[in-house]
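ABC transporter (Tersicoccus solisilvae), 448 aa
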Amino acid sequence: MPDSQSTSATAGDAERTVTGAEILLQNVTKRYPGQARPAVDGLTMQIPAGQVVMLVGPSGCGKTTTLKMINRLIEPTEGSIVLDGDDVTRMNGDRLRRRMGYVIQAGGLFPHLSVAANIAVVPKMLGWDKDRIAARVDELLELVSLDPEVYRDRYPKELSGGQQQRVGVARALAADPPVLLMDEPFGAVDPITRQRLQDELINIQAEVQKTIVCVTHDFDEAVKLGDWIAVFTEGAHLVQYDTPERILAEPANAFVENFIGSGAGLKQLTLTRVADVPIAEAEQARPGEDAAAVLARMKASGRHHVVVLDERDRPRQWLSRKQVGREGTITGRLDPHLPVVSDRSTLNDALDTMLVSSAGAALVTGRRDALLGVIDVDSVMAAIAAAREATRSGDYSAPVGTNTGVLPVAATERTDRNGDPGDDGRDADVARAGRLDGSHVITPGDRR
Ligand SMILES: Nc1ncnc2c1ncn2[C@@H]1O[C@H](COP(=O)(O)OP(=O)(O)OP(=O)(O)O)[C@@H](O)[C@H]1O
């Protein structure tokens, strides 16, 4: 089993600037012609700047309609939507869409345009010069882990589903909009690709800090990606709007409980990321190194495995002393089956990778797939146990959501004593029972 001696290195985030914008839906209603009930019924909802809000709920409950009203692909019948203080219902539609990237299933790429041209669509509309566009295309391809040299001139049909989806994300980010709207972005790819794309989105978000609103059918995806989850019933009625942890631990009512489905305990594993677990340092080598020298180094450090890295510190091989001993020179030939997880991966995904690899350990990579170290099953199990033990404090600020049609200034009085909306759903007017105080939101957990 690969070494895991030092437990000092922990993957952490550097401080980053939030570039996202706050979105406020105020009493928004959408009635489609010929429909008896509104698809969205008087929804008021705050979407905090730089955070990820997942919209979930049964089919036809109004998630997509809500999302598309934010960039006015669908016009609201009533109400207003405010983006960083500007009423978007009064804004020119094209201008608005440049402030909001939009990602749909399978990327929604133009088939007759190359990857570079697809990504360049909005910058071209904005009149950027050629050099600036070319530099931006390459920068974005790097961001979504596609080598610009290899991919910029390809056409969508030459890409896998996952690669198309990556280009779709790159295109949505092209003009650096503060908001990213995503509609079932990973619905069309296989589960393993979906897991990778989710991890990548988490990595990208750590870098860009956009406001992301994402519709999904998949509650596990909502738990994995969301800072906040909004659970809707028909008519986009908000039943609960809270952190994934709270929704799993305290579903607002039987509807949410059903929606979460079985295995809420297991889903908690999705909440802990590899970055939260201590990772061990790994012995490193480069292609072309003399194998005897590498072996001597391994013996000196007491490590039994060595990771061979390329010039950008991305793992290519993970060799035992025996394997190194058989070589004259370290080849650096890429091993396609390397057990690699991102530091943004959930413990659930990390465990899967380790079990499949049968190494009982995995390499951890961070930004731009560079090696951070090694984790093993024991440290993951210890972290899971610790997470289970951790008691959850109710003391935090949450964004507010409601279908009462008015801003819930004294909303806390409308809820049960414990601050939760009632189980019959009728007094659940204020999801998570928040209170809007200017732009600051206070939840029952804040009450002294
Ligand atoms: N263009 C339209 N004309 C008439 N009714 C529509 C239209 N688009 C959506 N609806 C109806 O509005 C309601 C909400 O639809 P919406 O697509 O927003 O729900 P959803 O939660 O995104 O559903 P799904 O998860 O199935 O995509 C549904 O009853 C749907 O049939």
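Residues 191-208 form the longest helix (18 residues). Residues 1-16, 391-395, 405-448 have pLDDT under 50 and may be disordered. ok done for today
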